[in-house]
Input
Amino acid sequence: MIYQILVYIALILGFVPLILGLFRKYKFFTRQYRGYIPLIGLMALASGYELICSYYLKITSDYWFQIYTLLEFLVIFYFFKSIFNQRLSRYLVVYLGLFLLVYLYTFLVIFPFDVLQSKAIGKVGVSLLVFAGTFYWLGQVFRHRSVVRLYNKPIFYFVIGLFMYYLNTIFFFVLVPHVYSLHLYLYDYWIVNVIASLIFRIMLILGVWKMI
Output
């Protein structure tokens, strides 16, 4: 019961950042925040799909989660590329190429036989991007001594929210195949991921609030 309530709260919160931005769209849809909008839009799209297709229509979500891994990588890639300098963008493009090659392999070769392993490999790739981007951003912050009142900047909530969420996600999706193989109770592990998703969405709501 608690699990279901948390899931629905998390899904509903997924719409809030986009709704807030649409109310103040003259501040939201600006060049300054162009890297933030796809991430916010994808979260709303994911919430809508899971509410309608997964919970209401009971459509299997295997293909959706596989495609979502690619989409989340692309929007997070675009987010970091938009906030970092041109020199680092070259490294990001190289990593993008490597990720796409691995993703294509897992989708064509591993996914038809082992859905969970395919998801885990994809999530590791996304998580590594988030961790590298977070540490580079923190390095930039301390190098330029711009720590003062960092909590007033939208980027703080987006980057830290991503880091906290994917720190949990990388362990969760790597452990899930072992949970199945050992016949452990999956919901004990899945509820941790739901709570992490709740925190992430709250962080993005705070970030959008600072934008507008």
